[in-house]
Amino acid sequence: MSATINTVIIGTGSYIPENIISGNEFLNSTFFENGSRLEKENSEIIHKFSEITEIVERRYVCPDQLSNQIGAKAAEKAIQNAGIDKETLDYIIFCHNFGDIPLNSNRIDVLPSLASKVKQQLGISNTDCVAYDIIFGCPGWVQGSIQADYYIKSGDAKRVLVIGAETLSRIIDPHDRDSMIFSDGAGAVIYEGVNQTEKKGILAHKTETHALHHGGLLTMGKGSNPEETGGNAYLKMNGRKLYEFAVIQVPQVIKKAIDKAGLTIEDVNIVFVHQANGKMDTAIMKRLFKLYNLDTVPENLVPMTISWLGNSSVATVPTLLDLVLKGQVKGYNVKEGDVAVFASVGAGMHINAFVYRF
Q1: Domain Beta-ketoacyl-[acyl-carrier-protein] synthase III C-terminal, which positions (predicted)?
Q2: pLDDT for the residue 44
Q3: How far is C-alpha 252 from the geometric centre of its chain's CA atoms?
Q4: What DSSP state is assigned to residue 168?
């Protein structure tokens, strides 16, 4: 068997903000829905929210931190973990949705690109290291990884750094109870092209965009408080419809990726799925197994961090991977030969997945 180029992970890193935001932080909030104040006690709203999403805590960045800065922190850790010279990176792909948002500004800054800002912070002088951003909703990091695979397998690149970072605490509506789902964080992964006869690394991938009928499930919109003026726009989602969409569509995309890899769900040892909503992810996995006529999802297949990290959008999957690889998610690890699925869903509506052999 002749050698082929495999896209393999050689380093990971993450940055988890220090500020822990529990449900109690929202006890004095004023929540509105459809222009009317919610009559339920906040303690009841918060409890019900935690039951549905499984989120107990989330993380927010410090007042002086920006997305590019926490992305750079995760990248530094990934470079150190890989043990490589940073000047050997061919691409830096920074995946985000809102760029840099200074505290209390609600204004998005993407000039220059966050990837360029990271390259500058890392002190990389190699002009052949190309730095650019991807805006692809929550599935951005997965899509960045797919692009890295294309670059590497084409022979155009040897090493690609893919970062996912977001500071959603700066763009959420404090009067919208759905805002309790969102958080801040950053994760980074370095991929390398390796010539091997054995098929490893990224085996197959699949991406879909369901914009025609579902593009409005996650959008920017005005605040929930009818008395608010100033024209600020906030992250808004149709939670119920998004849940229904994800539970039906995401399993089908994952199966298509597994099919392309010539495998079946029983070959999969671990699933790194976007940490969007605990119960939604559970429902997605149950539906996926039903596509294979299986009624039971094995235990210790899907590591979860949403209960204590919340939903940090593009950062959830690379952060989860980094924590598992470094033994920081109890009951989960990977060994050589294990097959993993990486999958996400988000604004667009985009869905993507790739299959990976360690």
Answers
A1: 259-357
A2: 92
A3: 19
A4: G
| Three-state secondary-structure class, residue 29 | coil
141 touches 187 (CB < 8 A)? yes
Judge if pTM exceeds 0.85. Answer: yes
Distance CA 35, CA 24 (A): 24
Q: In whole angstroms, what is the distance from residue 333 CA to residue 265 CA?
A: 18
**By three-state DSSP, how is residue 62 classified?**
coil
The answer to whether residues 98 and 181 belong to one domain is yes
Number of independent structural domains in the chain: 2
265 and 295 housed in the same domain: yes
- How far does Cα 7 stand from its chain's mean position? 20
User: What pLDDT, on the 0 to 100 scale, is given for residue 1?
Assistant: 60
Token representation of residue 338? 């294990």
Task: Tell me the two tokens of residue 97.
Answer: 């949705």
Q: Are residues 24 and 161 in the same domain?
A: yes
Please, how many CA atoms are within 13 Å of residue 218, restricted to the half-sphere of its CB?
A: 23
Q: What is the DSSP letter of 258?
A: H
Q: Among 165, 196, 227, where does a domain finish?
A: 196
Residues 25 and 172 placed together within one structural domain of the fold: yes
- Residues with Cβ within 8 Å of 210's Cβ and at least 6 positions away in sequence, in order, are 245, 249, 348, 349, 350, 351
Tell me the mean pLDDT per 10 residues along the chain, length 358: 88 97 92 88 92 93 97 98 98 97 88 97 98 97 98 96 97 92 97 92 98 93 85 87 95 98 97 94 96 93 96 98 96 96 96 98
Q: What angle do CA 74, 77, 80 make, to 5 degrees?
A: 150
List pLDDT tens digits, range 239-296.
889 999 999 999 999 999 999 999 999 999 999 999 999 999 999 999 999 999 999 9
Q: What is the CATH number of the domain that holds 289?
A: 3.40.47.10
